[in-house]
Amino acid sequence: MQDEQDFIKELLDPKTQNDAFGKLLQHYQRPLYAHIRNIVLNHDDADDVLQNTFVKVFRNLHNFKGESKLFSWMYRIATNEAITFITAKAKRNGMTSEAFQQKQIEKLTADSYFEADEIQLKLQKAVALLPEKQQLVFKMKYFEDLKYEEMSEILGTSVGALKASYFHAVRKIEEFVSKN
Amino acid sequence: MKDFKLDENPKIPSGFKTPDGYFDSLPEKVMMRLQEQETVKVIPIFARRKTWIAAAAALLILALSIPFLWNEPKTTTLDDAAIENYISYQANISQYDLVNLLDDSDIDQMESDLPIEDETIEDILISNTNFENYIID
Lengths: 180, 137
Hints:
The structure holds two protein chains of two kinds.
Chain A: H1 4-12, H2 17-40, H3 43-59, H4 70-92, H5 97-107, H6 118-128, H7 132-143, H8 148-155, H9 159-179
Chain B: H1 22-70, H2 80-90, H3 95-101, H4 104-113, H5 118-127, H6 131-136
């Protein structure tokens, strides 16, 4: 992407805003989709949340102070939107987020937009059993290949804490997959 | 059972797939949603403003008309005594003019309303030195 400061100027200028936002959409739609889908699991939900995220990004461009990278800011919005979505959906179904997530995992095999072998399914089941923060860290590191420094900016957690979180997540996953 | 080690295995994909052409159509879907929200946003603002202005105008008219509504015109009927008093004390009209304004029916009415005894008439005539004028007229 072009120099971030110049790009942010284009995003904020009404004359160039639409074109610049179009570029933003093209560049970030896939990684943001993957990030959101890893959290919400279902394609239709991910589609909803992704659109909400981009709308929120657009509406709040004037609030973006440039204190963090554009990428981190957008990922933060996406993460919050996804978690809020899951929490709200769980509540509507009269369940805790954890219980709701377990139910979503059980539905995965019937999901036409989930193609996985045995090990892939086991991995998803194992990850779903982790505490929320550890799940996020694991997914972002393992599935999305984000660097610890990038994750630290997005989640507001220190690199050290993130590394520890990832370490514990891996151990629990390995234990689950070994036993199942 | 062999312990499973994540690092010792090739990267395991998440297994999540998207419908064909999903990312081709997404940017347009987002832009359309933004445009729809813009249109919806504009109209309520104007409607609210118009309503506010209309309400303010209506309130102003009401406020201004309150004094007029409360001050009901007092349609007092003037009674005869009030009229008589006015004519006697306020109006610039002499007794001579008043008498000239009376026609025969008025005089007849007065004769029946105000019974004056003959003695009273004689007393008035005696006290009035110009009684010949009355006899002649």
